[in-house]
Design brief:
Number of helices: 11
Helix content: 40-55%
Largest sheet: 6 strands, mixed
Oligomer: single chain
Number of strands: 11
Distance between the termini: 54 Å
Structural class: alpha/beta
Order of helices and strands: HEHEHEHEEHEHEHEHEEHHEH
Strand order of the largest sheet: 2-1-3-10-4-11
Strand content: 15-25%
Radius of gyration: 21 Å
Low-confidence stretches: none
Length: 323
């Protein structure tokens, strides 16, 4: 076969594949979509997921079913999406931890963050706020640090699981402030918060939307937020950096991804629907402490790359290892 005939044949094949992709996008979705959420029902992620799902369902003309699959630091949910059919009908509400932290914690991760997913968009950013049970005799971050230093290992803090953003936010503070606290991992943020309210644990480093109702009700005390500036939902709560731990930042985010290998036109249509849903509900989400940060798939990919490098250092320093 001559080179020109070989080239022409492959060009025709490429055009045919592109046409198939366009056809897929025009038909998509052909059945209900499944949004996998890596945390327990009742967590702040539920509100985010269901708000986005409801708007997407109206725009795409198919139900978007929210399916909670907590456990293993998000690995259970991630694996489901990684192994799903690459047709866009299954997608993931991912935490930062699932794609920037887990690969540095679990030696035998059941998914590959770099190869198994097609990024769609960052969804929301939110700082992590340090909150304590009212029985803890501290009223600000400086007092918490002093108390922890005077009572090494006495304070227990809960998280949504080993390697989650909540866990790593605490480890970052422990490292920078030179304090000791005992980590109690849970299968999701909601059960951890329940135990904080009951006094079974004393401290949580938790996303603002999850903490806000409890802070307003006076059931927990907010000490400091982990972002580089104060959060509009808690304007009177200082940052950890303001409280004396200069340079501390545990901002986290949630975003959306689908299965690698999904045709590009389908990815683009799904991405557009997610972004549209986020922007249409921006005011509602902000009222619950979420800061909408929807953008391109490439922006999400760059964020994942940069933060993976940052948290790898924290994880190695803390000696965090998953089973």
């Amino acid at each position: 076969m001559s080179f020109s005939r070989w080239t022409r044949r492959h060009l025709l094949a490429a055009v045919a594949l592109a046409a198939v992709g366009v056809t897929h996008a025009q038909d998509f979705p052909t059945k209900p979509l499944r949004l996998i959420v890596p945390f327990a029902a009742g967590a702040s992620t539920d509100f985010l997921a269901r708000t986005v799902a409801q708007t997407m369902a109206k725009d795409l003309g198919q139900p978007v079913v929210v399916d909670n699959k907590p456990g293993a630091g998000g690995a259970i949910a991630a694996e489901l999406v990684a192994k799903a059919a690459p047709d866009g009908h299954t997608f993931l509400l991912t935490s930062a931890g699932i794609v920037t932290m887990n690969q540095h914690i679990y030696p035998k991760l059941s998914y590959d963050p770099a190869k198994d997913f097609a990024p769609l968009t960052l969804g929301v950013r939110l700082p992590i706020v340090t909150v304590v049970h009212p029985s803890v005799p501290v009223k600000n971050m400086q007092e918490l640090i002093a108390y922890a230093r005077a009572n090494p290992g006495k304070l227990t803090y809960g998280s949504a699981g080993t390697g989650t953003s909540q866990h790593l936010a605490a480890e970052l503070l422990k490292s920078m402030a030179k304090v000791s606290m005992l980590h109690i991992p849970y299968r999701g943020g909601a059960p951890a918060m329940n135990d904080l309210l009951g006094g079974q644990i004393q401290v949580m480093f938790v996303q603002v939307p999850s903490a806000l109702p409890q802070v307003k009700a006076g059931k927990v005390r907010a000490l400091a937020v982990g972002s580089d500036k104060r959060d509009p939902a808690m304007p009177d709560v200082p940052t950890v950096s303001e409280a004396g731990v200069k340079g501390y930042n545990s901002d986290t985010w949630y975003g959306f991804m689908t299965t690698a290998g999904t045709p590009a036109p389908v990815v683009q249509k799904l991405q557009a629907a997610v972004v549209k849903a986020l922007k249409e509900n921006e005011q509602k989400l902000e009222q619950h402490g979420f800061n909408v940060d929807a953008g391109s798939a490439s922006q999400m990919a760059k964020t994942i790359e940069d933060e993976s490098k940052k948290w790898a250092v924290v994880i190695k320093s803390a000696g965090i290892k998953g089973e």
